[in-house]
Specification:
The protein is an alpha/beta fold and 206 residues long. It has a single domain, classed as NAD(P)-binding Rossmann-like Domain (Rossmann fold), CATH 3.40.50. It has nine helices and eight strands. An eight-stranded parallel beta sheet has the order 3-2-1-4-5-8-6-7, sandwiched between helices. The longest helix is centred in the C-terminal third of the chain and has 16 residues. About 6% of the residues have low confidence.
Length: 206
Amino acid sequence: MAIATKFLARPDAQTLGIFGTGRQALAHILLLSRDQRFERFVVCGSHPSRSKDFAGWVALNHDLHIEPVDAATCAAEADVLCTCTTSKTPIFDGKFVREGTHLNLVGGFQPESREVDDLVVGRARIVVDSYEGALAEAGDLLIPLGLGSITKEHIIADLHQIVSGEVEGRRSARDITVFKSVGFALEDLVIATLVYQSVKAGEVHP
């Protein structure tokens, strides 16, 4: 997600929004909070009490201030949105997403489940971790494809094509960009290798 955010989010992005309060949400907030662009962090869980408890726990354990907000606020005020839920249906109304927003969709990984509605994907330039995985498992794309709300041409590239410069991801500050991840074994292998090398070199502690 950090790589996708680096290449697809606006350089002037300041607010990071997280949907979800589980392990994925925590991992994303801790990783992306290292990006010096972000000055504000907001979170929306499945219930206001979950959002408040998550924000309090992160503040206590990681010294990071996060504002618990409702779904509309999270979607409307974030410059970068990460959806890290197990929801099977859209978790916010796509009309709230502003031009220029980048979204990392990571929670849904089954054909019948999705975290965003047709309006979001229909307005976006979509990047996937792999075409094969996305077109087999990503309900966020498969459901609107099946409904005819989008076509496969809405998927402009995979992440490799963006990073290599083969395809331009964000063309303007007004573009809405989406990175849809369903998990990619090679990515896991690369990360594990980098962590192992860092531990071996003494750069981080296991």
